[in-house]
Amino acid sequence: MPFYPNHLWILAAALLLDAVIGDPPWLWRRLPHPVALAGQLIAWLDRRLNHDGDPTARRRAMGVATTLLLVLLAGGIGWGLSALLRALPFGWVLEIAVAAVFLAQRSLHEHVTAVAAACELEGLEGGRRAVSMIVGRDPQSLDMAGVCRAAIESDAENYSDGVFAPAFWFALLGLPGILVYKAVNTADSMIGHRTARHEAFGWASARLDDALNLVPARLCGALLALAAPFGGGRIGAAWRAMLRDAPKHRSPNAGWPEAAMAGGLGLALAGPRQYHGTVVPDAWMGDGGRAEATPRDIRRALEVTKGAGTVLVLGTMAAALVLS
């Protein structure tokens, strides 16, 4: 069998590759992104299996079947691809590239940086337009502080969902793990909503996504607390806010990275938000912190997630050395 490095070395290299290159536009203009393909499949299954007139029990059963199909398909593709690459002389190089496709460090950094730049150069309207690209809340309901808080929350939560959790599942299960996680996470983002159409059909994908993020979200919160000094914050304050406030969040997982970021930077994040004209109540993360966030605070948060990325790569490499 050809030489194949420890999969943790592959993960460390994939994290570095994604941080440096990200998702090259020239490539994805010519090829469909795997996550986009998964989204197309989920949308097709939603149209075919989720009918407005169906009883709730049937819609939930169809949602369970859809989620199971996604898990089996993604896991099977990941297993087959892993077996194929291990049979090739330099298959590990391709595995690094494949794993990097399912990480989102650079993409997240660029999108959140765009919000800070728009706020600084164009004011409130520019900030609203930029933040509407990364959050679902009503942009016109946000003042400047609200725009900045939304960007910082997105940076923290999406670092957990888009970087740490995929890396966690790759570390445990290799390509099958990261592909299954991304398929379920994509399904949750598309159909895991408490709306009349998707509350029953998306129940299984939402619950499975919660389960898959249960451990990674808490570990990511700890990592962001450890990285707080990169943004001029304090580890102890981040840790205290996370333990105190995260369980109050309406999401079982999102509160951990958000509260760690809030406490570390001395901010108040989350709280009540408006979606499609409806105010959604939620607890404040970093209760007692400063709610008047600024574009400078967005850039501080970005330094925290960059620092977390550095710690994650170094920690992965250290683990690879120990296990080699």
From TrEMBL:
Localization (cell): Cell membrane
Pathway named in the protein's UniProt entry: Cofactor biosynthesis; adenosylcobalamin biosynthesis
Database matches in Pfam families: CobD_Cbib (PF03186)
Residues annotated as transmembrane: 61-81, 304-323
GO molecular function: ABC-type vitamin B12 transporter activity; threonine-phosphate decarboxylase activity
Membrane topology category: Multi-pass membrane protein
GO biological process terms held by the UniProt record: cobalamin biosynthetic process
Alphabetical list of InterPro entries matching this protein: Cobalamin_biosynth_CobD/CbiB
Sorted UniProt keywords: Cell membrane, Cobalamin biosynthesis, Membrane, Transmembrane, Transmembrane helix
One cellular component (GO) term of this entry: plasma membrane
HAMAP family associated with the record: CobD_CbiB
Stored PANTHER family: COBALAMIN BIOSYNTHESIS PROTEIN CBIB
Function as written in the Swiss-Prot or TrEMBL entry: Converts cobyric acid to cobinamide by the addition of aminopropanol on the F carboxylic group.
Family: Belongs to the CobD/CbiB family.
Protein name (record): Cobalamin biosynthesis protein CobD
Organism: Inquilinus limosus
Gene symbol of the encoding locus: cobD
